[in-house]
Amino acid sequence: MSQKVEVNVDEKINGKGHVTGKMHAAVTEATHAYLCTDALNVPGAHVAYRGIEFYASVHVHLRGGKWELDTPTSYYGVSRIDNYQEATPSQRKTIRAAMLAAWADTAATIPEVLIAAEAEHRQEKIERAEDDVEKAEKALEVAKTALEAVKAG
User: Stretch 92-120: mean pLDDT, rounded?
Assistant: First the structure.
């Protein structure tokens, strides 16, 4: 599960140009979000940079109170809408930076979404652990039965 948020992108990045558009965030926990422009094929969900429209996606994490890209060298898809060609390294870097900046601005205004995502994440972890305990208990019973059969045997 995740909390879904629509985010408007309107960022000027280091004098390299202006990135505008719309993206969606899937907030999976308070410190992680998956940002993408083409979620669920929503019309108009893309970003534009220097007159070219792009689809893009990136994972971001909250570290030390600051939102950051997953890793600086991680590859994330950024491709042109008109011909699906990959963005240039410079385009990709600028678009990723714009998406990150737009998310950081938005995330600061929606603490309730981050709290809800963290609660969902915690509940999922509890349910997985409970399932693991149940499976382990069943395996223990099978092993005890096998042991008793060997001893009786």
Answer: 87
